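If you are new to this repository, start here. Below is one unmodified record pulled from the training split, so you can see the exact layout before writing a loader.
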Amino acid sequence: MLFPVTGQAAVYLPIEGSAEEVMEILGALDETASRGENEMTALGIIFQDFDDDKYFSNAVALRIAYRTVGKEQDCLNDSINPEMRKKAGLGEYDESAWADGFFMHALNDGLMTSHEFVQCYEKQNPLYKDAPVTAKRFVGWMKTLHGADEAEMPNYKATYMTKSDIALVLSFFEPHILPKMGMVLHEGKVVKITEKYTKDKINRVIAVSTEKNYIEIRVDLDKNTPVFMQLDNELVVIGKGRTDTSGALRVGDKIKLYMKDKALYFASVTEYEKKEEYTGELSVYSGNLYFYDSPGGYIVLDNAKSYTSGETSDFMQMQIKNETELMFKHKQINKDELNTIFDKFCFAYMKSTWAGGIERVYRLVIE
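And here is the target side for that same chain:
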């Protein structure tokens, strides 16, 4: 997939991500989370399995801080290094000691004093590794690691840090974080979208005007194949109330384009008109429920058939989301129960939200 950036001359940027990697990003994002949370999740800094309403510990928060400067693995390696542990006055390694390397680095990097290092292992101390991290402490760590001592968090009042609080701080430090991750950020506005249809293809060009560049995002899709089955040709788009693909973009959207290794990684919409659209067309598929991937948020049908085109497929992958209605033997079930149901005949009713975007199963009926 090629996304050209055009200025004086077109520069073509290859996207190396596979369909599996795009699906992994889509599956990791939380449609109930804030845009900032999903941006940091897409960047791989915070993870979906972090509880939304629980406070982050000193150990986890410090790990996230070191992840933003690319030293996470170094810290994990030092946690199990016998010489480093002996030098720090720590005993033999066990699985509960995974965070020790982060505290060693924090001591060496000036994030804490030797006295504070000792306190990280005192259970009644606020600095204890499993105690909740304070906002002041986490911000201080970020300032020191990124050489941003003069930076001031605007209107930040939280005492302890939940997932959304962590994401807010990370978003504030984004200009410092991205260069260390090899990322480049372009911010602009979608000024034009053109789509050309042939018998078998959709050629979509999305033009984004930034302060320095005129960027064109080109997506070529098979007209007769669901978007979720050709994600290697697609771009992840977040920030429009749900995670989606390039078909979700509209003229007037204000957008952030994240690039890595001169390739477009994902897009985040910061402002848009909050009006939801539907294609109006319903696609119906049948097949046997073969597999449900909970982290990825998709099901796989075998012996699948499309009632729209009449085409059949040995295996077909479909996106499941929070709003999907799931029925089994005439009773409504939740997504977790899909893990206990296999090799059952079913009908999947598909629609695209944000017309042109990724199709989702909005109703699954299992017999």
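Two things worth knowing about this chain: The longest strand covers residues 312-328. The mean pLDDT is 82.
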